[in-house]
Structure formats: C-alpha cells, structure tokens
Amino acid sequence: MQAGNARYRTAEDLPDIVPVFPLTAALLLPGGRMPLNIFEPRYLEMIDHVIAHHRLVGMLQPRLDGALRADGEPELCDVGCLGRLTSFAETGDGRYLVSLQGVCRFRVAEESHAKTPFRQCRITSFATDLDAEAGAAEVDRPALLKAFRAYLKANDLDADWESVSRAENATLVNALSMMAPYGAAEKQALLEAPDLKTRAETLIAITEFALARDDENFGSSLQ
Predict the structure, then answer these.
(1) What is the dihedral of CA 18, 183, 78, 3, to 10 degrees?
(2) What pLDDT is attached to residue 1?
(3) Which of 58, 130, 137, 184 has the fewest CB atoms inside 10 Å of its own CB, making it the most exposed?
(4) 131 by DSSP, 3-state: which?
(5) Which helix (H) or strand (E) holds 45?
(6) C-alpha separations of 156 from 159, 160, 176, 213 in Å
(7) Residue 160: pLDDT band by 50, 70, 90 thresholds?
(8) pLDDT digits (tens, 9 = 90+) for 88-105
C-alpha cells in the first residue's frame, strides 16, 4: 500500500484540478484498487486525457439527495478519492478496461469551467492520507474481524483468512469498506470518516445494523 503512494509525499505533489468520474455507490479509498469498464465517449476521452497528463482521476458520487444542475447533470458530493491509473487495456469493441489505485481523499473546492466533455474540479487533497499507516494502531482489529465473520456467516460466505490475517490494519479497514455491499449513503459515510479508527467503527456499526435488520426481518417472516 505504501509503495502505491511513494510518488506522492505531500499535497504539493498532487494537481489542483482533476477530471472527475461520478459513480453512484462506488467507493475508492487510499491504497484500494478499483477496476472500471469505460464505454461512454466522454469518459473514454477522460482516460486519454489522464494518460497524457498526471494519470489521476477523481472518483466521487453524485450528491445523495439527487440534486441536478440546470443542464441535468448531477450535483456532486463534496468529498471523493483520487485514483492513479495503474493498468489499461483496450477492447476490440472500443471500451477501456482500467484499474485505479487509491491515493488520497479530496474535497471539491469548486467545479472548473473546463471545455472538455468530462467534468473537472479544483480540489484540496487530504494530505494526511498520504501516510498510509497513520492511525492504524488505533483500529480495534478484533471488533472489526468479529463483525466481518458475523456478516460472512449470516450470508453463507467465506474468506481467504490467511490473507486477512496477514493484512495490515489500514489495508484491512479500507479493503473491507470497499468490499462492503452497502448503499451510497453508507459508502459516503465510510469515505468521509476522519481517520482509520473512525472508518473501522463506522463499518462495524453499519454491519451490526444490517445484521440486526436482517434478523428482525427473518423473525417477522416466521410470524
């Protein structure tokens, strides 16, 4: 995880204006990997642009209340995550298959009046995210794994526990947050958590709520 951010040591290493890719319920976090299937013409052009420039894309969600601009485009959430394009393949039917590695979160300062077909924003980066293990020692790992095990058991799923046991706290928290099958609001809450400890606590709380709700629904179906 640290190796992926080695080229970015301070906020000054990052651009002030980046292309943004709004995608509902998509969560990218520092160190995480996100595969994308790009087919819309303006986003194909966006990928061409970032390959020619700094290789960074701002992943963020449309605003959760569904608000639209006058031109019909969605308003954007204030906080997203920068992803560096780390792999690229072109398909025979004109699509791009790419992978982004999370670098750090950012806050949108304003939308740029770019003349590109894709949107661009002026951003302020969360420089603290560039220290991949900041706050990792404060994560309640046993509580996180307990909630993860309970979720897997309730949904009759399994995991590669050897890999889980080897994962550093930061990697574990962010990977589980990205994997979690929750909705847009929960994803945004995980993204905006101020630190790893709070993100882990938020993920535990969301998971426990989901398990309790499922138990309640199961009990109601038996009555």
Answers:
(1) -50
(2) 36
(3) 137
(4) coil
(5) helix 41-52
(6) 11, 14, 17, 17
(7) confident
(8) 999 999 999 999 999 999
